[in-house]
Amino acid sequence: MTTRIDSHQHFWRPARGDYTWLRADVPALAPLVRDFLPADLAPLLHAHGVEQTVLVQAADSEAETDFMLELAAAHDVVGGVVGWVDLGSPDAMASLERMARHPKFKGVRPMLQDLPDDDWIARVPRPDAIQALVRLGLRFDALVKPRHLPSLMRFLKDWPQLPVVIDHAAKPPVGAYGGEAFAAWRKDMAGLAALPQVCCKFSGLWGEAPPSTHGDADAAVRAVRPVWEHLLESFGADRLMWGSDWPVLTLAGDYAGWIEVSEACIGGLSAGEQSHIWRGTAQRFYAISTD
User: Fold this and answer.
1) Neighbours of 184 (CB within 10 A)
2) What residues does each domain of the chain span?
3) Which residues, listed in sequence order, are joined to residue 240 by a DSSP beta bridge?
4) CB of 199 within 8 A of CB of 166?
5) Structure confidence at residue 291 as a pLDDT band (50, 70, 90)
6) How far apart are CA 114 and CA 169, in angstroms?
7) pLDDT tops 80 at residue 139
8) Main-chain phi, psi angles of 104, to 5 degrees
9) Quick one: three-class SS letters along 180-231?
10) End-to-end CA, the chain
11) Please, are residues 126 and 85 in contact by the beta-carbon 8 Å criterion?
C-alpha cells in the first residue's frame, strides 16, 4: 500500500465556541456541526496507509491552537499543527515564540478568505511577526481564493525567506474552464509557482467542483483534472502535497473517494514523483519527524 501523509485535516469540538463560520443555521454546513476528533479519523487513516497528518486551524483564536496542540501531544499520528496568530497584533511575536516551544507547532494560517479586506496580507502583518516566523523556522499556510493571489504575490516578494504553501490550490473555479476566471487563476498560480519558496496543496478541490460531481468520484476526476494538470506543470511534483481537507471533504464525498480521485491524477507519474506528492513534500515542508 502507498504510504501517505495527509497534509491538511481538521479536528474540532463546536461546543468550544470559537468556530464562527461553523453555523448550524446554514444548511450546507449543518452536517459539519458536530465533534470531529482523532477517533473519528483513525479508521480512515489506517484503511488508506496514511501514517501522519498535518492538523490545520479552523478558528481564528489562539485557544483553538492550544486545543490542537493538546490533541497532537496525545496522538502520534498528528505530525504537525498549523495554528492561528493575529499577525497584525503587537503581541504576535510573543505568541509565536510561546507556541514554537511545542515541537509539533509548524506554522500559522490567517483565515484570509474570510477577511473583509482582500488586501490584508499585503498591508497588515507586522514585520516583526513575519521576521519571527522566519527566525523560528515556521511556515505560512495561505488560505486564499483567486482574488487574493495578486496581494499574496506582493507579500511573498517582500518575504522570500518565508516558506509558504497555498491551501486547496487557492480554490479555483473547478469545472468552469472556458472563462476569464480560470485563465486568471492559471496566470496568477504560475506566477506564484515561479517563487521557489512556494508549495501548493492538492486538496479541497472536490468541494469546489459542481454539486453534480459530489459523491461521484469519476465525475470529480473529470472536473478536477485540468486543475491538477496546471498545478503539476507549474509546481512540479516536488512542490505539491496531497491533503484530504477532512472533514470538510465530507460535504462533497468521502475519504476513500478523494483517494480514488487523487490516484487517478497522481498515479500516472513515476514512483518518485508520486512519493513526493503523497508524503515527501509535506514531510520536508513541515519538517515532520518520521521516528
Assistant:
1) 16
2) 4-285
3) 200
4) yes
5) low
6) 16
7) yes
8) -100, 0
9) HHHHHHHHHHHHHHCCCCEEEEECCCHHHCCHHHCCCHHHHHHHHHHHHHHH
10) 20
11) no
Q: Which residues contact 273 (CB under 8 A, 6 or more apart)?
A: 237, 238
SS3 content of the chain, % helix, strand, coil (to 5): 50, 15, 35
Residues 6+ apart with CB under 8 A from 40: 247
The rounded distance, in Å, linking the Cα atoms of 268 and 262 is 11
Q: What is the largest CA-CA distance in the chain?
A: 49
Residue with cell 486547496: 168
Per-residue confidence (pLDDT) for residue 178, from 0 to 100: 85
Dist CA 156 CA 139 (whole Å)? 12
Tell me how far apart the alpha carbons of residues 276 and 27 are, in angstroms, rounded to a whole number.
Answer: 37
Q: Are 129 and 98 in contact (CB under 8 A)?
A: no
CA distance linking residue 254 with residue 44, whole number of Å: 10
Q: 486545543: which residue's cell?
A: 67
Question: Domain 4-285, CATH 3.30.300.330 — does that match?
Answer: no
Instruction: Look up cell 516551544; give the residue.
Output: 101
Q: Which residues of 130-158 are buried (b: 16+ CB within 10 A; e: fewer)?
A: bebbeeeebbbbbbbbbbbbbbbbebbee
Q: How long a stretch of residues is the chain?
A: 291
Integer Cα distance of 287 and 144 in angstroms: 23
Answer for the pair 98, 65: CB distance below 8 angstroms, yes or no.
Answer: no
Strand order in the sheet with 198-202: 4-9, 50-56, 78-83, 105-108, 139-142, 164-166, 198-202, 240-242
* CA angle (221, 245, 12) in 5-degree steps: 155
Does the pTM surpass 0.90? The reply is: yes
Question: How confident is the model over 21-40, as pLDDT tens digits?
Answer: 999 999 999 999 999 999 99
DSSP state, residue 17 = S
H helix or E strand, kind and range, residue 33: none
